[in-house]
UniProtKB/TrEMBL annotation:
This is Uncharacterized protein. It comes from Acetobacter orientalis. Residues 130-141 have a biased composition (Low complexity). Residues 77-153 are annotated as: Disordered. Residues 92-103 have a biased composition (Basic and acidic residues). It comes from the Bacteria.
Length: 153
């Protein structure tokens, strides 16, 4: 390897080239909306609609729909507020502490050493051969379908 400059000069030269590249780097429309957010917000507060603002941007060769513009404005506002607030953890229900749920825990007695007649628990449940409960959704009973129409080819 044959360096014609020092490491410091090479580092500075690469940093300069990177800064130059960044200045010419194509921006996304979102980045542009983010940079000019304050004037855009002022226009909205003064009564301009999203469509009017988008028409102004389109005249300046910045193509954006009103829906996308509204989304970008909300996103920038959220970022400026500091993003979302951290969620607080849920508090456990008072009766769930220290007890592990089992499939039949809702019908079992809360004291494990109590003697309960197993037939008494079964009496509260519907028998498997009993008629099913009415469904809340509409049924297809009485529905008849017609033959599809014949299509001439």
């Amino acid at each position: 390897m044959n360096l014609t400059m020092t490491v410091e000069e090479l580092t500075a030269d690469l940093a300069k080239e990177h800064e130059e590249w960044l200045s010419h780097k194509p921006q996304t429309v979102y980045d542009l909306v983010k940079q000019i957010y304050e004037p855009l917000l002022k226009m909205k507060q003064d009564g301009r609609t999203d469509s009017e603002i988008c028409a102004m941007l389109t005249k300046r060769r910045i193509d954006i729909s009103a829906g996308t513009f509204a989304t970008y404005m909300k996103r920038v506002a959220k970022e400026l507020r500091g993003g979302t607030r951290p969620r607080t953890a849920r508090k456990p229900k008072p009766d769930s502490e220290g007890r592990r749920a089992t499939p039949d825990s809702r019908v079992q007695n809360s004291t494990p050493d109590s003697k309960v007649d197993p037939g008494a628990q079964q009496a509260s449940r519907p028998k498997p051969d009993s008629a099913p409960a009415q469904s809340a959704s509409p049924s297809m009973s009485g529905f008849t379908s017609r033959k599809p129409p014949a299509l001439d080819a």
